[in-house]
Amino acid sequence: MADNQRIHPDIEASPRPSAPLVPGNIAKSENGDPNNSPLPPPLPQRTLPVMHSKPPRRRRSCCCRFLCCTFTTLLILIIAIAITAGILFLAFRPKIPKYSVDKLRITEFNFSSGTNILSVTSNVRITARNPNKKIGIYYEGGSHISAWYSGSQLCEGSMIKFYQGHKNTTVLDLPLRGQIQDASGLVSKIQQQIQDTNNIPLDIKVKQPVRVKFGKLKLFKVNFRVRCKLVVDSLSANNDIKISSSSCKFRFRL
Fold first, then answer.
1. Where does the Late embryogenesis abundant protein LEA-2 subgroup domain start and stop, copy by copy (predicted)?
2. Whole-prediction pTM
3. Which of 109-123, 131-145, 159-173, 207-221 has the lowest mean pLDDT?
């Protein structure tokens, strides 16, 4: 008995669908397979500038530090000087020296018409008063004293060196001499003023270097400046000259 055989028809294995080589959203090239088409050129790359961090401002910080230190030092120095000056003022109670012109004598007032030169020799008496109880004054060398009329210097001289103690009054007789070139106009002006008013205004100017002594402390040198305005009745030689008015102003400079 023949074995029953079941005969099945040969069924060819159906091939599995393969994935498309080109995605659906990409159109096929007219020349064939897109895999064989040339690659698109690369996009240009943008080079970004390199940002460097700023170096620390050492130089500027050093300058600011130096200025701050200098300003602080000056401020401390000014405060120290102010405190010292305040202590000295409270301790010594300084007062301004007083000066006056008490006498003027002309020993020569000679005008030479041939040389047009005016020669003047005089003697002026100045009284210096120190009203301070605890302050002395050293009158140093290098002083200058001069007599003026209407902006023209008539004669000049200097003061002597001396020390003026506390509550002291010193009388100084100082010789003055001078020569004025081209003095014809000046002499005519003086003579005309004497005839019209019988008064002649004069200026006595003094520049005197001094050192002030507070107790035992001798300070640095300063300049005393004194300007005295006089009105006299004559400039005749060897005659008594009357001073009708006299006023002096005092100031000092470092």
1. 126-228
2. 0.67
3. 207-221
